[in-house]
Design brief:
This protein has 569 residues and is of the alpha+beta class. 33% of the residues lie in helices and 27% in strands.
């Protein structure tokens, strides 16, 4: 079936293409992520886009407005063109897209909210490697600017299992290389393509949230570094710190977005951003931050590579939001964290008399709490921090927040952390990632742990490591979350061992990889020391007994054959 119309440059015809379902198009916590080769299969990407439009917009599809943006990884431009052509064929009235298809995930969320769009597609696999042999991903965001909730992602999946056709305007010539507005006529209906500068809206918003003058005056005489890891954050860093604040150009590293991220793994942690860590160890710089592929994650380092864990970063920012004009104006009602994230922010909430919420992993769970006015700050241990200014985590926002806190308090990053621990105690935390484990091995481990939950004897057990350090179980479960706003229930969100002294061991199978399984083990212990010098202790040493118990109890080495984790954070 076809329908003809006339466009700005050439006739445009809607075609209905017969297709068949592909297995495994179930969106995870951050959309659908697979290897590039899978997305390049004929009809594969088209099927998922059509399912996203149908499930996300339903009877509001005709006349809807959408945002499109991506992190610039390989296949982004091709996927962006497919979205434009399929959206136009389905009666969407307007698509707002970043120049050359580039928009950071936070910037895309802001554009959806600022322009009151109906939703959007974000083209990213976040911190996963890029390039022709790397990963690609598509995520659908709803009108609040946040990731689609489970009700919509489940509907997308159901549609992908039965889809038989999709609509497309194959000859639509969409120029996304320069900003501007282009109108088209599609079967008598107007379709608008608006290409926007990738950084302008977002940077203007940051200037409203933070005191750029304070940041500039305090930090310009000092040495700072920002590492974009050849991801999407580069242009935003250059616009803010070089163009707006006048910092030297060499403070921004790896700022050109590249389809393969320059061969780097764009995950801002101590392993994959080791080049930045090495520079900071030289002691010439006072502050550094690194960002992932799509700009929603961050790593914060102080002088001599003093590492701020994401859990501590969330807690410190929660305790110092009065340093940021946005919160001075709007106030603070509460905080939230993902379940595996340490309870450090809980201590801040308790002392401040604020609400604290514990949600499953996945930023979409924070959106309901923000929209209901229950929280203003939230974060995940996986290097994600954000506030209610948008509905995504925001790496650059987190860096600006830290720069603001240090400037306002007049203390170094390390001094701020030690002051914080002296007040609240320290939640020692580590995460062990075992990437690309066979799904069978991951399932067997979780089955073993589930049997422990079901065994009534386990609850009263005492676990000991070879040194004799022991921990008595207070409770264990598979975390289940009931959303306090809409009443929706999320089950099987991670197995928790909760000990009487406040220590925790958590096991999860991650859904953000493109193949196999990633086993994540989270270990946490809390200490309130009478002498501040004890806070200098290495978290790995403090938590070693708990790590030993975690590995031995799960039989991870026996089931997976892995002697060491891929990444320790």
């Amino acid at each position: 079936m076809s329908c003809c119309g006339t466009g700005a440059m050439a006739p445009n015809t809607i075609e209905t293409i017969s297709t068949a379902p592909f297995d495994g198009q179930k969106p995870g916590t951050s959309g659908l992520r697979k290897s590039v080769g899978i997305f390049q299969q004929p009809h594969y990407t088209e099927n998922f886009i059509q399912a996203g439009l149908t499930a996300g917009l339903g009877d509001k599809l005709k006349g809807a407005s959408l945002a499109v943006g991506g992190d610039g990884r390989f296949f982004c431009k091709e996927a962006a063109q497919l979205i434009i052509k399929i959206a136009a064929a389905n009666g969407v009235s307007k698509v707002v897209i970043g120049q050359n298809g580039i928009l950071s995930t936070p910037a895309c969320s802001h554009i959806i909210r600022k322009r009151q769009l109906c939703g959007g597609f974000i083209l990213t696999a976040s911190h996963n490697p890029g390039g022709p042999k790397g990963d690609f991903g598509i995520k659908y965001n709803i009108e609040n600017g946040g990731p689609a909730p489970e009700a919509i992602t489940n509907k997308i999946y159901e549609i992908t299992k039965t889809i038989t056709e999709y609509k497309i305007v194959p000859n639509l010539k969409a120029d996304i290389e320069k900003p501007g507005i282009t109108p088209f006529k599609i079967c008598g209906n107007e379709f608008i393509l608006e290409v926007v500068d990738s950084t302008t809206d977002y940077v203007d918003f940051m200037k409203e949230i933070f005191d750029f003058g304070l940041i500039k005056s305090y930090w310009q005489p000092k040495q700072v570094l920002f590492n974009a890891m050849n991801g999407v954050t580069g242009p935003y860093l250059k616009k803010i710190f070089i163009s707006e604040m006048g910092f030297p150009s060499d403070c921004c590293l790896n700022c050109e977005p590249l389809p393969d991220f320059g061969g780097k793994h764009p995950d801002p942690n101590l392993t994959y951003a080791s080049d930045l860590v090495d520079i900071m160890k030289e002691g010439k710089h006072d502050f550094a931050a690194a960002f992932d592929g799509d700009g929603d994650r961050n790593m914060i380092l102080g002088h001599k590579a003093f590492f701020v864990t994401p859990c501590d970063s969330l807690a410190v920012l929660a305790a110092n939001l009065d340093c940021i004009p946005y919160f001075q104006r709007n106030g603070v009602k509460g905080f939230a964290r993902s379940m595996p994230t340490s309870e450090a922010v809980d201590k801040v909430a308790q002392l401040a008399g604020k609400e604290i919420y514990q949600v499953p992993t996945g930023w979409k769970f924070f959106g309901n709490l923000m929209d209901a006015g229950k929280i203003n700050l939230c974060g995940e241990e996986s290097f994600g921090t954000g506030s209610d200014h948008i509905r995504e985590k925001d790496g650059l926002w987190a860096a600006l927040a830290w720069l603001s806190v240090v400037a306002k308090r007049g203390k170094s990053v390390q001094e701020i952390l030690f002051d914080h621990w002296t007040t609240y105690g320290r939640n020692f935390f580590t995460r062990y990632d075992y990437e690309n484990v066979s799904s069978e091995a991951g399932d067997k481990m979780m089955e073993l742990l589930t049997k422990l939950i079901d065994d009534p004897k386990t609850k009263s057990m005492t676990f000991s490591d070879p040194t004799g350090k022991s921990y008595k179980m207070s409770n264990l479960d598979n975390f289940e979350y009931t959303d306090p706003v809409d009443g929706s229930i999320s089950t099987n969100q991670g197995i928790r061992f909760l000990f009487e002294d406040g220590s925790r061991i958590i096991y999860r199978l991650s859904g953000t990889g493109s193949s196999g399984a990633t086993i994540r083990i989270y270990v946490e212990g809390y200490e309130k020391f009478p002498n501040p010098q004890f806070y200098h202790q290495d978290a790995q040493e403090v938590l070693k007994p708990l790590v030993t118990i975690a590995l031995r109890t799960s039989k991870l080495k026996e089931l997976t054959g892995r002697e060491e984790p891929t990444v320790i954070t």
